[in-house]
Amino acid sequence: MGETQGLLGPADVRDLAARLGIRPTKALGQNFVIDANTVRRIVRAADLRPDDVVIEVGPGLGSLTLALLPAASRVVAVEIDRALAAELPATAAARAPGAAGRLEVVHADAMKLTRLPGPQPTALVANLPYNVAVPVVLHLLAALPSLRRALVMVQAEVADRMVAAPGSRTYGVPSVKLAWYGEARRAGAIGRAVFWPAPNVDSGLVAFTRGDPPPTAATREAVFAVVDAAFAQRRKTLRAALAGWAGSPAAAERALRAADVDPRARGEALDVAAFARIAEYGPSVWGGEPPGPPVTAPGGAAQREASEGDGEGAFADGAGGGAPRGADPGGGGPGRRGRRGGLR
């Protein structure tokens, strides 16, 4: 494995992959981080504190894990691949013996997590594949209310969608749903040369800080149902796009006017607070006939702990596709579809 301590370099990654029988290919979208400066940069951008408990989804061979261990009090690495999960503690013990005791590996699908053992995580730091990035982040924010911050690496196009503002071309379902939980922002770009093999797409860093949802009497699930409906037919006016959700175009218009939203507007013009207002007048709540203004509570707080169930809805505006698989079928990485590997 090259040097006995420190971060993984190109030769170390190739040696580990060979020993585990992993042969990454562009066709399978398997891409491993081979540049130590890149993982150092990710950890700096994550702005971790010494007392942070970090959850890392899809640690793979451990490139990022080794950089996280000295920066946090505990790192919980969630890996769906049994072979990779089994190897990670040995890698940490060999290359970071002074901090290896801070690592706990959980062999699980991140999309099925509802709680982790021990102290609950305060920060998410991970390399995520484009086709599960948004569902994983949304699920963990819903399932783990202790999470206050996140720094994830995703395909550049997905990063743009996650941080987009209302009115922009890239604004859509991921942008609105992340805004429910707090503020997402771009934290840098990652080139292709830091991966083995080099992917066909660029990557980007997205930083997130949790905040309060907009004041509303509607539950998160009700708000997200409106968001999904609005962007499923994003070229249509809200009166037409929400007809199925409301029961008819006329019912959609009544709900929109009650929420003080122009029925001729499109979903891309609305912020998360406007979607929350619309949800308050939904047929499931008011039987299709909007009453007067409801009494609101912050963010439908009683429902915040429910599971996300976003899957397809998270990509209803074309941000990606594929079944969300937590640490995934193939490790983190841009465009990766293979059983293992990915942006590690």
TrEMBL record:
Where does the UniProt annotation locate this protein? Cytoplasm
Name a GO molecular-function annotation: 16S rRNA (adenine(1518)-N(6)/adenine(1519)-N(6))-dimethyltransferase activity
Q: Which InterPro entries match?
A: KsgA/Erm, rRNA_Ade_diMease-like_C, rRNA_Ade_Mease_Trfase_CS, rRNA_Ade_methylase_Trfase_N, rRNA_adenine_dimethylase, SAM-dependent_MTases_sf
Spans annotated as Disordered? 283-344
Pfam family name, one: RrnaAD
Does this UniProt record's set of keywords contain S-adenosyl-L-methionine?
A: yes
Q: Which residues form the Ribosomal RNA adenine methylase transferase N-terminal domain?
A: 38-212
Q: Specify the domain of life of the species encoding this protein.
A: Bacteria
Query: What top-level class of enzyme does the UniProt entry assign?
Result: transferase
- Chain intervals with Gly residues compositional bias: 318-335
**Catalyzed reactions per annotation:** adenosine(1518)/adenosine(1519) in 16S rRNA + 4 S-adenosyl-L-methionine = N(6)-dimethyladenosine(1518)/N(6)-dimethyladenosine(1519) in 16S rRNA + 4 S-adenosyl-L-homocysteine + 4 H(+)
Gene Ontology cellular-component annotations: cytosol
Keywords tagged on the record: Cytoplasm, Methyltransferase, RNA-binding, rRNA processing, S-adenosyl-L-methionine, Transferase
The yes or no answer to whether the keyword Iron is present is no
The similarity annotation says:
Belongs to the class I-like SAM-binding methyltransferase superfamily. rRNA adenine N(6)-methyltransferase family. RsmA subfamily.
Say what the protein does: Specifically dimethylates two adjacent adenosines (A1518 and A1519) in the loop of a conserved hairpin near the 3'-end of 16S rRNA in the 30S particle. May play a critical role in biogenesis of 30S subunits.
Q: Indicate what this protein is called per its UniProt record.
A: Ribosomal RNA small subunit methyltransferase A
Q: Which species expresses this protein natively?
A: Actinomadura rubrisoli
